[in-house]
Amino acid sequence: MVRKLVIDPLTRVEGHGKVTIRMDDDHRVLDTRLHIVEFRGFERFVQGRPLWEVVVLVQRLCGICPVSHHLCAAKAMDVVSGVRSDALTPTADKMRRLMHYGQIFQSHVLHFFHLASPDLLFGMTSDPAHRNVVGVIESFPEIARKAVLMRKFGQEVIRVTAGKKIHGTGAIPGGINKHLSLEERDALLTGTPDFNADVMVAWAQEGLDLFKHYQRDHAPLIDGFAAFPSNYLSLVRADGAMDLYHGALRAVDHGGATIFDHVDYQHYAEYIAEETRSWTYMKFPFIRSLGREKGWYRVGPLARLNTCDFIPTPLAQAEYETYKAYTHGRPNGMSMHMHWARLIEALHAAEVVRDLLRDPDLLTGDLVTTGARRGEGVGVIEAPRGTLFHHYRVDDNDLVTMCNLMVSTTSNNEAMNRAVGWVADHVISGHAEVTEAMLNQVEVAVRAYDPCLSCATHALGRMPLHLRIESADGELRHEIMRAGS
Q1: Which of 80, 79, 72 has its CA nearest to residue 96?
Q2: Edge to edge, what strands does the sheet with 386-394 contain?
Q3: In the chain, how long is the greatest CA-to-CA distance?
Q4: How much is the CA Rg of the chain, to the nearest whole Å?
Q5: What is the pLDDT along the chain (485 residues), one digit of tens a residue?
Q6: Please, what are the domains in the chain?
Q7: Judging by DSSP bridges, how do beta strands 231-236 and 297-298 pair with one another?
Q8: Most buried of the four, 152, 259, 291, 320, by CB within 10 Å?
Q9: Can you tell me the distance from the alpha carbon of 452 to that of 385, in angstroms, rounded to the nearest whole number?
Q10: Distance CA 403, CA 178 (A)
Q11: Exposed (0-12), middle (13-18) or buried (19+): which is 436, by Cβ within 10 Å?
């Protein structure tokens, strides 16, 4: 007999997913799977749309990280329009960066304080009725108040750069469509005592201290939980610095050895391949030179701190040095340390936003660059959850003929499955009675990756189909099966 445990739906994540765990008669885990059970199909219905519409259309993939898709598509369409992403006007480049770092800030704050912190503040095995954001508001009102204001600040940055807090229109092929007004700038830079750029930097430091103190007091749990080695991938600047908006691709292995470095992301498909599996709508990317078995990798805050050489803002750099010293400079494979890395990035984003708000180029200057039209373009950006790829081909009538989206959570697919397997093996296996607290630890492992499951629902090739027509009493009357490509 095989016993199957199902967690459906996963909670405190964006999108819909489930986990299945199969156990034998001795209550030993046989296998585990993380399933993405919804399908969106954006690659298909983007086809036939005009290139300038795509920049707005694709951000409907998500209501949490639409800016990432908006800017990534814009970077791809820059290339199609004959404009290199590093050749935008100073105003366009800085307005896009301000929009993007505002998005990074609000998204990291949302994930840590609203979704992840209940497990840390109350414990993974605490009462689920209290282990949620409402419980945080009740028990830690000052933390909750600051978290709400921090996210509001990031959302306001998005509003003044993109036109709306969600699904804005600020970026266009070749540039941006507006300047920042003096009033908009001052409302963010100086604002009120509880709502200005300097306060956001200070509160980001407080959030980071909160996790560091927790990690210090619970090091055996935090360090060992769902920890395993992997490869890591991200964009880096030409000098090796972290750059969440633009750069070239770098991949390193679990020991820190370089797999490839400073790769122009227009050629990403020469280095990264994708495969599908029958039980999920999320693809499995891997590094071609290492193959399917060994080539899987992680992206996101943990990967970015493992691949970059330094962070180009002083407060975040000081925290980065402390973080790197913890593993003696070697790549960090501890899944729960993604929260640590995420909060360092939130601090970095707050510093970048504050510094950009002081730049006069936001208030005046040319908005758009033009160039010689091309038929294909790739955009890559570091979204809050990791490296995001948008790849388009466009015909002579400016209509999209091909779209491939490789989303951050997709790249973390294998790692999340392994994290689920780790918890099943170390927490659940061997127990006849499986409690809610045990199953929550499965969710904690997935939640550490801040997955956006809605973004990651994509298929490669032709979808398989199995149709059964049964009578009212369950008798099979007709069956149709179509294999995937």
Answers
A1: 72
A2: 376-383, 386-394, 400-406
A3: 73
A4: 23
A5: 788 999 988 887 877 788 999 999 999 999 999 987 767 778 888 999 999 999 999 988 877 789 999 999 999 999 999 998 789 999 999 999 999 999 999 999 999 999 999 999 999 999 999 999 999 999 999 999 999 999 999 999 999 999 999 999 999 999 999 999 999 999 999 999 999 999 999 999 999 999 999 999 999 999 999 999 999 999 999 999 999 999 999 999 999 999 999 999 999 999 999 998 877 778 899 999 999 999 999 999 999 999 999 999 999 999 999 999 999 999 999 999 999 999 999 999 999 999 999 999 999 999 999 999 999 999 999 999 999 999 999 999 999 999 999 999 999 999 999 999 999 999 999 999 999 999 999 999 999 999 886 666 654 445 455 677 888 777 888 887 766 54
A6: 39-408 (1.10.645.10)
A7: parallel
A8: 320
A9: 8
A10: 28
A11: exposed
Residue 197 phi, psi dihedral angles, 5° rounding = -65, -40
Phi, psi (deg, nearest 5) at residue 7: -105, 105
For 143, the token pair is: 């933390």
Per the CB < 8 A criterion, the answer to whether 221 and 120 are in contact is no
The Cα 159–Cα 99 span in angstroms is: 8
Instruction: Name the nearest CA neighbour of 238 among 185, 309, 290.
Output: 309
- Amino acid in position 301: P
Tokens 């050749």 belong to residue? 87
CA 331, chain centre distance (Å): 19
Cα(17)–Cα(347) distance, rounded to whole angstroms? 30
> Looking up tokens 């010293």, which residue turns up?
325
**Three state DSSP letters for the chain:** CCEEEEECCCCCCECCEEEEEEECCCCCEEEEEEEECCCCCHHHHCCCCEHHHHHHHHHHHCCCCHHHHHHHHHHHHHHHCCCCHHHCCHHHHHHHHHHHHHHHHHHHHHHHHHHHHHHHHHCCCCCCCCCCHHHHHHHCHHHHHHHHHHHHHHHHHHHHHHCCCCCCCCEECCEECCCCCHHHHHHHHCCECCECHHHHHHHHHHHHHHHHHHHHHCHHHHHHCCECCCEEEEEECCCCEECCCCCEEEEECCCCCEEEEEECHHHHHHCEEEECCCCCCCCEEEEHHHHHHHCCEECCHHHHHHHCCECCCHHHHHHHHHHHHHCCCCCCCECCHHHHHHHHHHHHHHHHHHHHHCCHHHCCCCCECCCCCCCEEEEEEEECCEEEEEEEEECCCCEEEEEEEECHHHHCHHHHHHHHHHHHHHHHCCCCCCCHHHHHHHHHHHHCCCCECCCCCCCCCCCCEEEEEECCCCCEEEEEEECCC
Cβ-contact 166, 63 below 8 angstroms: yes
